[in-house]
């Protein structure tokens, strides 16, 4: 990569008003729903930031750079690594450019496109090239990013997961004032379609539906990840079909396997789905830390990922409000899970995070509880007619009482009800 191309990627070196021409920032400013990403605060050290595609990582990087240049800090290096052809070119480019100027902030965007990227980062870190600097490495939910990043531990390395928007973040991006319950209900049903992925949200805002082409694009990204590690889309789709069929119910790996595939194969593909930040699962509180393993409850990390999975199985068309009806109660419970997942991870704020250390379900002879967190029992009831128990918080369709609250109100004020 020559210096002219690098300068084109770093316009703030020569132009204080660079942000007026930056396509990422312009797109966000003109979007129907726009926001300033605030996933965490940067300090000195090496950050590895990873998450699903199209959730806003590059936009967040550009917003961070704008904050710095607003403070007249221009000693910033940005490289879009998906345009670098090899790790040899990557190494040569970084070594040469780090001689060019004493950069305080270094952003290497989509670094996981480069094979063996971690070896080069480790090499430069060992030479002291990152001492006293803030270095941000971003990547999509690459299947090897966690394993490779382990080689960088001990060098002030921090792993940060970049999630889709929570329901609260989505609502706040739409409404500047405190929302009414009517507004929350209306936005919540839409959230069950587009989830927290900004590109998908803006398409829905524009058209009133999410096109099958958009769903297919995200599905194709999954196929690309599977292809890199020589895994079968057909097997992954079979497992997704079983997850959708049993969604919100408990299931074991052997039940998913059935007579079609082996249990170790299921375990392998579930782990891949987790690393893609596509699916997650929780354990039964009563069997956790025991020598035997009972059934799990498997969910999608974002509501939109349900529709991507359904498309992979059934080749569905455009997704709109009418599409929700056959799956509504399951989507509601999944939305509760995904928001709890993101809330807990951000609250715990550790490089290594396992949701199964914090969130459980309960199933025993007395019945089943959807979620158990921080000594609180939470049951999702997308209805207003059911038998209540006094020690359970019920998330309902609209009813409100001492231990009942509408789901959308709970998700909007999740910290108020969960704590941590």
Give a quick precis of the structure:
With 420 residues, this protein is an alpha/beta fold. It has 18 helices and twelve strands.
Explain this structure.
Helices cover 44% and strands 15% of the residues. The chain has 2 domains: 3-161, Rossmann fold, CATH 3.40.50; 168-418, no CATH class. It has 18 helices and 12 strands. The mean pLDDT is 91. The protein is an alpha/beta fold and 420 residues long. The strands form 2 sheets. It has a 7-stranded mixed sheet. Strands 2-3-4-1-5 form a 5-stranded parallel sheet. The protein has helices spanning 3-9, 23-30, 57-70, 87-100, 117-126, 145-149, 167-174, 181-194, 198-207, 212-228, 233-245, 253-257, 263-275, 303-314, 321-324, 328-348, 407-412, 414-418, and strands at residues 45-51, 76-80, 105-109, 134-140, 157-161, 279-284, 297-300, 360-364, 367-373, 376-380, 392-396, 404-406. Helix 10 crosses helix 14 and helix 11 (233-245) crosses helix 14.
Number of separate structural domains: 2
Strand order of the largest sheet: 7-6-8-9-10-11-12
Q: How can the largest sheet be summarized?
A: 7 strands, mixed
Multimeric status of the protein: single chain
Q: In whole angstroms, how far apart are the ends?
A: 47 Å
Structural class: alpha/beta
Poorly predicted residue ranges: none
Compute the average pLDDT: 91
The beta-strand count equals 12
Q: Using the CA coordinates, give the radius of gyration.
A: 22 Å
- Total of helices: 18
Q: Helix content range of the residues, please?
A: 40-55%
Global shape = globular
Helix-strand string: HHEHEHEHEHEHHHHHHHEEHHHEEEEEHH
Strand percentage lies at 15-25%
């Amino acid at each position: 990569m020559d210096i002219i191309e690098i300068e084109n990627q770093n316009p703030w070196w020569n132009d204080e008003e660079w942000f007026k021409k930056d396509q990422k920032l312009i797109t966000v400013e003109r979007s129907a729903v726009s926001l300033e990403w605030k996933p965490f605060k940067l300090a000195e050290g090496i950050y590895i930031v990873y998450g699903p595609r199209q959730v806003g990582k590059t936009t967040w990087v550009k917003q961070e750079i704008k904050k710095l240049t607003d403070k007249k800090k221009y000693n910033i290096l940005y490289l879009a690594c998906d345009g670098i052809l090899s790790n040899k070119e990557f190494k040569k480019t970084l070594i040469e450019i780090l001689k060019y100027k004493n950069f305080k902030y270094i952003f290497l965007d989509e670094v996981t496109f480069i094979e063996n990227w971690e070896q080069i980062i480790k090499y430069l870190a060992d030479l002291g090239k990152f001492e006293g600097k803030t270095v941000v490495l971003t990547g999509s939910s690459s299947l090897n990013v966690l394993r490779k990043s382990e080689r960088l531990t001990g060098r002030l390395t921090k792993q940060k997961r970049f999630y889709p928007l929570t329901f609260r973040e989505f609502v706040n991006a739409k409404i500047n004032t405190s929302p009414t319950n009517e507004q929350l209900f209306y936005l919540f049903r839409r959230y069950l379609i587009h989830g927290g992925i900004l590109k998908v949200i803006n398409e829905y805002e524009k058209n009133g539906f999410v096109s099958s082409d958009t769903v297919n694009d995200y599905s194709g990204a999954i196929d690309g990840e599977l292809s890199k590690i020589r895994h079968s889309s057909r097997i992954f789709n079979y497992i997704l079909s079983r997850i959708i069929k049993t969604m919100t119910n408990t299931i074991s790996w052997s039940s998913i396997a059935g007579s079609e595939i082996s249990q170790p194969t299921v375990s392998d593909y579930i782990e891949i789905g987790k690393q893609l930040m596509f699916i997650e699962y929780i354990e039964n509180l009563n069997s956790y830390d025991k020598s035997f393993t009972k059934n799990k409850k498997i969910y999608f990390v974002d509501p939109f990922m349900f529709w991507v999975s359904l498309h992979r199985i059934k080749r569905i068309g455009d997704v709109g409000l009418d599409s929700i009806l056959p799956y509504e109660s399951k989507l509601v419970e999944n939305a509760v899970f995904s928001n709890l997942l993101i809330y807990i991870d951000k609250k715990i704020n550790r490089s290594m995070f396992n949701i199964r250390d914090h969130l459980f379900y309960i199933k025993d002879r007395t019945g089943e509880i959807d979620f158990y967190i921080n000594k609180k029992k939470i049951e999702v009831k997308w209805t207003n007619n059911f038998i209540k128990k006094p020690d359970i918080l019920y998330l309902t369709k609209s009813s409100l009482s001492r231990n009942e609250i509408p789901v959308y109100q709970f998700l909007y004020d999740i910290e108020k009800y969960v704590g941590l």
